[in-house]
Amino acid sequence: MAQPVRILPHYTYDDYCKWEGQxxxxxxxxxxxxxxxxxxHQIIASALSYVFIDAMKGCKNCKTxxxxx
Length: 69
Hints:
- The protein is α+β, with helices and mostly antiparallel strands.
- The protein has a domain at 13-55.
- It contains two helices and two strands.
- It has helices at 13-18, 39-55, and strands at 23-26, 29-32.
- A two-stranded antiparallel ribbon has the order 1-2.
- The longest helix is centred in the last third of the chain and has 17 residues, at 39-55.
- The mean pLDDT is 84.
């Protein structure tokens, strides 16, 4: 049985100019932009990165990084 196709609305740059808040328009689809994480979150994420990097020093194929855009 075929699945129904979901049709998303398509917005234009003129629509985007009228919106409030932080939005990004990608191929006609709006995406809400989130603010940067608070300092406490960044401190914890950095500390965890060091722990992961240290734990994987012996592994040639292992890599770790913060989320990338």
